[in-house]
Amino acid sequence: MKDYIEERAVEIAEHIIRKKTTVRQTAKVFGVSKSTVHKDVTERLPKINPLLASKVKKVLEKNKAERHIRGGKATKMKYQKMSKQI
């Protein structure tokens, strides 16, 4: 069981780095919770592969810095869609 978790953590990390995905998007792809993804990359991965963990951390920090922009775009699209329906 432990091998599976470590393997999953590495696969998740590689996916995040390759696709530049968010924790939410990654969780959906792997069929696990956001909490699981977060725990895998922040707690388990540094013990397994510190170099990979630092690369993932950079992607996640970038995502975090940009999330207010994505939220604003989503809200704008929502209200544009609503105004077209009226």
TrEMBL record:
The keyword Methyltransferase does not apply. InterPro entries: Spore_III_D, Tscrpt_reg_HTH_DeoR_CS. GO terms for molecular function: DNA binding; DNA-binding transcription factor activity. Keywords: DNA-binding, Transcription, Transcription regulation. It comes from the Bacteria. PROSITE patterns: HTH_DEOR_1. This is Putative DeoR family transcriptional regulator, stage III sporulation protein D. It comes from Caminicella sporogenes DSM 14501.
